[in-house]
Design brief:
The complex is a heterodimer of chains A (195) and B (250). With 195 residues, chain A is of the alpha/beta class. Chain A has a single domain, classed as 3-Layer(aba) Sandwich (Rossmann fold). Chain A is 24% helix and 30% strand. In chain A, the strands form 3 sheets. In chain A, strands 2-1-3-4-13-12-11 form a 7-stranded mixed beta sheet. In chain A, strands 6-5-7-10 form a 4-stranded mixed beta sheet, covered by helices on one side. Chain A is globular and about 45 Å long. The model of chain A has no long low-confidence stretch (mean pLDDT 95). With 250 residues, chain B is an alpha/beta fold. Chain B has helices at residues 32-42, 56-72, 86-94, 104-108, 111-120, 153-163, 184-193, 207-215, 226-229, 235-244, and strands at residues 5-13, 16-21, 27-31, 47-51, 77-80, 99-102, 125-134, 137-142, 147-152, 167-172, 198-201, 221-224. Classes of the chains: A alpha/beta (195), B alpha/beta (250). Chain A binds chain B through residues 10-11, 13-14, 17-18, 20-21, 46-47, 106, 108, 110-119, 136, 138-140, 156-157, 179-183, 185-186, and chain B through 1-3, 5, 40, 45, 70-72, 74-76, 93-96, 98, 120-123, 166-167, 192, 195-197, 220-221, 250.
Chain lengths: 195, 250
């Protein structure tokens, strides 16, 4: 069973649909026992990192998530809340990944939000098995995690090279939306589910 | 670098895609999910579905259809047409649409965009503007260009951005349907004045027209309907040609 953490932070529908397309069973849940028992955990998130952290705190899920030993995938803001902190709010985050989340600088050549299809580079590890650098995935975000020791994929927006994906031990995070990234995204989700 | 997007637009009536009128006067229709899947497989970067149903029944069918599209299609899609209230928009987003596009309703109630953006985020709100040039002033219109409004394109687009729109979809009613190309200088001016992406729509007849609006016109995306529906310019051919011109394309 796969747990999609349902902590009242936006629409989980697209993640559910993606898992349905892959034919896997999942549950939407905020129940710590169910989350701990799950084989894989997905932490989605839209909106701001500060709002997402507030919701996680209210649900009492922060120690639960940080303590997970099975593969966890944070998507978009779900990845950002696993970082150290975020300028958006600002917010202290869970500190699993050794990255700070910052706002993209004003740049007429690189509009904010960074929205649309962009290329991955420096792919590292099992999440990107069977893929080559240059693959396009779908992004929608105004804040980014900088490069750090946990970076396992990069992307460039204007002059900013940032972490498109992070990994620390059993924790994975993608800034992009694999559930909206066509066949490439589907492969990444399959790779995560096969961990 | 973010790729320039190519977006087919599908008009939906009572749950079916309407491809216009053919030479014997019959409406050609297609299944909305099937057509979306085909375009997605061909390399479309996003899809836009516009509900042109006039009836209550048709609108309800569209909401169900949005749920089916979201279940089947693995690229982002925008829905529009007939969104007149926050509740209409919320219903579509909750059924899995990635963005909603508002036009007349935004002109009548500009606060609608702020309301949706506050709840869902700016990236969910596309402000569509149909404008025509009248005595040198680009005037926003509604009802397919029939009704003039008091809004001027550049200031209205700016206001939409400030109110929380995440994208502007600008159609020149003077160029729409002509297949003679886009008003690139107008797009360039619009793109320069905004910090959010601009989608160009209406007027494309050739690959060069699309290349021009993405380069000279500085548009972030190009949307078209008939050139794709009738196979005049297949998406893979278009994207390959744009790539050869050095344009960043997925």
């Amino acid at each position: 069973m796969i747990a999609i953490i349902d902590y009242g932070c936006g629409n989980l529908r697209s993640v559910e649909n993606a898992l349905d397309r892959l034919g896997c069973e999942y549950r939407l849940t905020a129940d710590p026992a169910e989350i701990i028992a799950a084989k894989k955990v997905i932490l989605p998130g839209v909106g701001s990192a500060a709002a997402a952290m507030d919701k996680l705190r209210e649900s009492g899920l922060i120690p639960v998530v940080k303590g997970l030993r099975r593969p966890v995938l944070g998507i978009c803001v779900g990845m950002q809340v696993l970082c150290r902190d975020s300028e958006e709010g600002p917010a202290e985050c869970m500190g699993v990944f050794d990255a700070h989340v910052r706002r993209f600088p004003e740049d007429p050549q690189a509009k904010v939000p960074h929205m649309g299809w962009n290329q991955l580079g420096n792919l590292d590890g099992k999440l990107f098995k069977g893929m080559e650098g240059g693959a396009y995935v779908y992004f929608v975000h105004s804040y980014y995690a900088g490069l750090c020791n946990d970076t396992v994929a990069t992307c460039r927006h204007g002059n900013t090279l940032f972490s498109a994906a992070l990994r620390y031990e059993n924790f994975y995070g993608t800034q992009f939306h694999p559930e909206k990234s066509g066949d490439v995204g589907e492969q990444i989700l399959k790779n995560f589910l096969a961990l | 670098m973010v790729a320039k997007r190519i977006i087919p637009c599908l008009d939906v009536k009572d749950g079916q895609v309407v491809k216009g009128i053919n030479f014997v006067g019959l409406k050609e229709v297609g299944d909305a999910v099937e057509m979306g899947r085909k375009y997605s497989a061909e390399g479309a970067d996003e899809l836009v579905y516009l509900d042109i149903s006039a009836s209550f029944e048709g609108r309800r069918t569209f909401v169900d259809l949005v749920g089916r599209i979201a279940a089947e299609i693995n690229i982002p899609f925008t829905v529009g047409g007939g969104i007149s209230s926050y509740e209409d928009a919320a219903r579509l987003l909750d059924n899995g649409a990635d963005k909603i596009s508002v036009n007349s309703a935004a002109i009548a109630h500009p606060e609608l965009m702020s309301q949706i953006a506050r709840q869902y985020g700016s990236q969910f709100v596309v402000c569509a503007i149909d404008a025509k040039c009248i005595g040198g002033r680009w005037t926003a219109t509604t009802h397919g260009g029939r009704n003039l409004t008091d809004k001027e394109l550049f200031s209205w687009a700016k206001e939409a951005q400030e109110r929380g729109a995440g994208e502007i979809l600008f159609t020149s009613m003077d160029h729409d349907g002509t297949k003679a190309g886009y008003p690139c200088e107008v797009y360039a001016k619009l793109c320069e004045s905004l910090s959010i992406p601009v989608i160009a729509s209406g007027g494309a007849g050739t690959i060069d027209h699309i290349a021009d609006v993405l380069t000279l016109g500085r548009a972030d995306a190009a949307l078209a309907a008939s050139i794709f529906h009738y196979g005049e310019i297949p998406i893979p051919v278009l994207k390959q040609a744009l790539r050869q011109k050095g344009i960043s394309i997925r």
